[in-house]
Structure formats: structure tokens, C-alpha cells
Design goal:
There is one protein chain. The protein has five helices and eight strands; from the N terminus they run E-E-E-H-E-H-H-E-E-H-E-H-E. With 178 residues, the chain is of the alpha/beta class. The protein has a single domain, classed as 3-Layer(aba) Sandwich (Dihydrofolate Reductase, subunit A). The protein is globular, with a radius of gyration of 16 Å. The chain starts with a strand and ends in a 19-residue tail after the last strand.
Amino acid sequence: MRLRTITNIFVDGVTQGHRWIRVAGTAEQEARGGFARFGWAPPLLDEEASGFIGRTFLNAGAFLFGRRTYESFAASWGAGMDPGNPVGQALDGRPKYVVSTTLTDPDWPGTTVLSGDVPDAVRALKAEPGGELQVWGSGTLIRTLLAHGLVDELVLLVHPVVVGQGPVCSPAPAPTSA
């Protein structure tokens, strides 16, 4: 599979907080690190942007998530949000992989937990047939994948907003040798 990452980023480099997330069935703000500027992106998603996102999700053969992003997606899309939506259709109908050392028994059907050596596990997934392996969000995971040369395409969805607070996209750390 070809590994493609898709990241929302804002003109000031911030990569967090464009939406509400659902955790355990309740809406919460994405408030890691005291982040308070969330929920502004939905008005920016016009028909063209929504169409691109839907088509991109439908191109996936499988999805790869970091744990926090997985939990957010599973709590909303895994609960059957917006039946018939191409995003939900793709997520529910394709394999999902989540990188985690703490999650052991995912509730979302079709999910496999990857633990241990993440680069080796991702190399094995990439060796499988099946089109694109997509990573949405999951900034920490993406930095690891970049550091190990595992990303085939990096897509940045640049939003015309200055957020002024939150994690900024930064270079991947260099891989360490054992």
C-alpha cells in the first residue's frame, strides 16, 4: 500500500483544534495543553472542500491512526454518525489500524491495534496490496513515519486562519539507532 498522510494545518502552522471531538459519547473540546480555540473550521468547509475530503476518504484501502485521533474518530464515526456520508462509509467499510501502547481492545469493528515496533509494523502494512494507507491527523504518528521514511505523500489542507495557539507542525525527529 502507498502511505498518504492528510493534515489540517493553519497559516500559522498550528495543527490542532479545528473541530469538536466526541469522547465517550459526549462532546468535548480538543483541549490538550489548554488549547481553547477550537470549532472554527466547519464554516470554512464549502462544497468543494467537503467533496475533496469525501473523495480522499473513499480512495483509502485502510486507515492508520495514532491513539488520540483513533479515539476521536471511533467515538463519532464509529457510532454511525451521518449514515451515507462518504467519510463514514469509508471508515466503517475498511480496515483500521491504531498505534498504541495503552489501547488493547478497540470497540470499533475492523480495528487492529499495532504495538511494539511501529516502523516495522507500518512497513508490513505497506507491503500489503490494497491502494492507499491513509493517516488523518495523528501528528505524533506522522512525525515518526516521516522520520523513518515511510510517507509516500504528505497532503496539507491549509486553512486560511491564524489560530495563534496550539501545537505547531515541526520537523520529524531523527531516527535513533539501537
